[in-house]
């Protein structure tokens, strides 16, 4: 949390329009309402829970911010996460007799996740850029492929990490430094790097230029295809990172892992102020979007405001309100 | 539709003709949802196993198995079975009741035997045999166990499944069984029969309530998420978690006398095997098998757990 508030300061100074405030106001209102309704909402344990569970979608959403900014879209990330989780569990279980329980086998699992993510991202990117197929279609296809593959790997059931191994790996989700758990630390690091890359680097400017107008970007000596390919590859790696954090939590993967993560990540990116058509992206905004989405869920569970049947409706209303708030503010500013 | 039905009827009549000509082989079509979650995975496993076994026992029977990932695909599967294989009997576990009712009715009108499993059709009297799971009974058995295990009452939280009739029937059965037992449901949320969702919901329940005596997770997948959340919070007020369905890992824990998982309640995916077996008996013998066969939900305790443990099943 500290990371992105630190980042907002220079951003606000550079862009002192009201549009910046939309998502922040929504988040602050949500936190105040939560604290008012249930004091436990602001307890350290609850904040840790919410931030840690936001980390999966959050890490993926940072990558998604780049893909969308460059004018692309990736629907396959949820299925990809499930597939990578399944693959990781299979490889680690397979290597257990030779490597035994210890750091090396965890590193092997992590390497598998990162490499699989990179390859999956490159494959999406290759089909979209080199073969010139619509991103929506390519990733809709790969979404189905990865979802089926994980169902097939698990034989329709659930893939579970060996019990001893799970116990050893568990601290990667539940442990941490100075009371801050690892998923939160990794999420914060990804956000800081992402924000620097987006707003301070040539790659970030190339993404925005590509998403804004491909032809102009091309004539301005931006390698459009390479930029797009890199955004998909980066998203793939980040899906791998998210999976590394996900597997130690329950130590299992099945066909129901990561369902609808892609839509949550896209919603978070848009709530945060990134333009769905591309050309403009805000990494810190995405973080606010992710937090808003997880806080709504958390808040609805902590209070008895509405029938649980209506949880989805409340979420939908808040998503739309957050975006309207932002548009209104933009019009005024 | 009427054109399609006429076509189907025609095909089925033609099939009956050929079947009558060649008395020895009869075809049983089995149409089930694909293995998209744990319970369905187990159901697919038991369907395949039953078919393999029956093909050896009855050389005069042929089986066609199709798995569908949505109701539309299931309708297509059934139409294909009638048109290309001329099935003499259909065993169907409907994805959803409404969309499958008319196509199954068409199969029935074509003269084939129809066995419906688990979810009933929305028009009564179509099927010859209905092999049903007992959802109110599932809730009742769970509730009775809770009441017996907590004689002095206590505060419990409940995780519900995906909002459906199945879930409503279970919860109603549960609520009426614990009535007057002093057990109070302090929180109830949907965990959607999903490990990750139930993990999040349980974390929030633990933040919300300082004292929770027990949890009705109502499903073994949800129990996995609940246990992880309790474990991570380091809370020792929760005495036990009651899941349901009969997942092998959970049955194993009951068998091993785990105090957090003292029991489980069955809702066996193997009910598909019952349906296929009974249909095969009906096709090959004079024993009557029409009617309704309700598979009761049974309480699994350390005493009987061994007979519910299938280590080879994916579920």
Automatic annotation (TrEMBL), chain A:
Topological relation to the membrane, as annotated: Multi-pass membrane protein
Keyword annotations of the record: Cell membrane, Membrane, Transmembrane, Transmembrane helix
GO cellular component, one term: plasma membrane
Superkingdom of origin: Bacteria
InterPro entries for this protein: ABC_transp_permease
Subcellular location per the Swiss-Prot or TrEMBL entry: Cell membrane
Molecular function terms from GO: transmembrane transporter activity
Transmembrane segment boundaries: 20-38, 50-68, 174-197, 229-247, 259-276, 283-300, 306-325
Pfam families named among the record's database cross-references: BPD_transp_2
Annotated PANTHER family: ABC TRANSPORTER PERMEASE PROTEIN YPHD-RELATED-RELATED, RIBOSE IMPORT PERMEASE PROTEIN RBSC
The protein's name: Monosaccharide ABC transporter membrane protein (CUT2 family)
Taxonomic path: Bacteria, Pseudomonadati, Pseudomonadota, Alphaproteobacteria, Rhodobacterales
TrEMBL record, chain B:
Record keyword Cytoplasm present: no
Domain Periplasmic binding protein: 28-274
Coiled-coil zones: none
Chief site of localization: other
Pfam families: Peripla_BP_4
InterPro entries from the UniProt entry: Peripla_BP_I (IPR028082), SBP_2_dom (IPR025997)
UniProt subcellular location: Cell envelope
Any single GO CC term annotated in Swiss-Prot or TrEMBL for this entry: cell envelope
SUPFAM superfamilies linked: Periplasmic binding protein-like I
Keyword entries, A-Z: Signal
GO molecular function term, any single one: carbohydrate binding
Keyword tRNA-binding: no
Signal peptide annotation: 1-22
Family according to the record: Belongs to the bacterial solute-binding protein 2 family.
Protein name as it appears in the record: Monosaccharide ABC transporter substrate-binding protein (CUT2 family)
């Amino acid at each position: 949390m500290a990371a992105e508030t630190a980042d907002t300061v220079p951003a606000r100074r550079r862009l002192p329009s009201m549009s910046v405030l939309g998502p922040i106001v929504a988040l602050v209102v949500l936190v105040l309402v939560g604290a008012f309704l249930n004091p436990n909402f602001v307890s350290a344990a609850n904040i840790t829970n919410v931030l840690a569970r936001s980390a999966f979608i959050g890490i993926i959403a940072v990558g998604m911010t780049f893909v969308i900014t460059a004018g692309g879209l990736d629907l396959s990330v949820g299925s990809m996460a499930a597939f990578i989780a399944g693959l990781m569990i299979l490889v680690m279980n397979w290597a257990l007799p030779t490597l035994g329980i210890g750091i090396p086998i965890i590193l092997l699992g992590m390497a598998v996740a990162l490499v699989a993510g990179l390859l999956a991202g490159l494959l999406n990117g290759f089909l979209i850029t080199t073969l010139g197929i619509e991103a929506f279609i390519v990733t809709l296809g790969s979404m189905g492929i990865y979802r089926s593959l994980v169902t097939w790997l698990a034989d329709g059931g659930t893939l579970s990490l060996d019990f001893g191994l799970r116990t050893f790996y568990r601290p990667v989700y539940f442990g941490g430094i100075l009371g801050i758990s690892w998923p939160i630390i990794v999420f914060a690091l990804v956000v800081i790097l992402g924000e620097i890359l987006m707003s301070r680097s040539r790659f970030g400017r190339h993404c925005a230029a590509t998403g804004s107008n491909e032809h102009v970007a091309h004539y301005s000596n931006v390698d459009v295809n390479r930029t797009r390919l890199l955004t998909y590859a980066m998203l793939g790696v980040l899906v791998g990172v998210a999976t590394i954090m996900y597997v130690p939590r329950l130590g299992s993967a099945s066909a129901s892992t990561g369902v609808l993560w892609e839509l949550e990540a896209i919603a978070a990116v848009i709530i945060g102020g990134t333009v769905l058509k591309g050309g403009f992206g805000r990494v810190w905004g995405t973080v606010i979007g992710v937090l808003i989405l997880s806080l709504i869920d958390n808040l609805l569970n902590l209070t008895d405001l509405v029938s649980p049947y209506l949880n989805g409706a409340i979420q939908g209303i808040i998503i739309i309100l957050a975006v309207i708030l932002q548009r209104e503010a933009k019009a005024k500013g | 539709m009427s054109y399609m039905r006429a076509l189907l009827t025609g095909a089925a009549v033609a099939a009956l003709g050929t079947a009558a000509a060649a008395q020895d082989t009869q075809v049983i079509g089995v149409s089930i949802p694909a293995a998209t979650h744990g319970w369905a995975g187990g159901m697919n496993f038991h369907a395949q196993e039953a078919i393999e076994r029956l093909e050896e026992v009855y050389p005069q029977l042929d089986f066609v198995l199709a798995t569908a990932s949505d109701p539309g695909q299931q309708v297509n599967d059934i139409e294909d079975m009638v048109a290309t294989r001329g099935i003499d009997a259909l065993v169907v576990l409907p994805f959803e009741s409404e969309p499958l009712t008319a196509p199954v009715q068409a199969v029935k009108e074509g003269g084939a035997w129809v066995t419906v499993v688990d979810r009933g059709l929305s028009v009564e009297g179509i099927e010859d045999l209905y092999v049903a799971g007992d959802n109110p009974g599932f809730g009742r058995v769970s509730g009775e166990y809770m009441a017996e295990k907590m004689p002095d009452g206590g505060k419990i939280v409940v995780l519900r499944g995906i909002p459906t009739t199945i879930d409503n029937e279970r919860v109603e059965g549960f609520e009426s069984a614990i009535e007057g037992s002093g057990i109070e449901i302090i929180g109830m949320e949907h965990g959607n029969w999903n490990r990750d969702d139930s993990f999040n919901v349980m974390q929030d329940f633990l933040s919300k309530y300082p004292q929770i005596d027990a949890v009705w997770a109502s499903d073994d997948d949800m129990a996995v998420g609940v246990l992880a959340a309790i474990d991570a919070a380091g809370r020792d007020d929760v005495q036990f978690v009651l899941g349901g369905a009969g997942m092998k890992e959970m049955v194993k824990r009951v068998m091993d006398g785990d105090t957090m998982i003292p029991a489980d309640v069955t809702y066996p995916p193997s009910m598909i095997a019952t349906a296929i077996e009974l249909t095969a008996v009906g096709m090959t013998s004079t024993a009557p098998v029409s009617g309704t066969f309700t598979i009761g939900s049974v309480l699994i305790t350390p005493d009987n757990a061994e007979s519910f443990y299938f280590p080879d099943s994916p579920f």
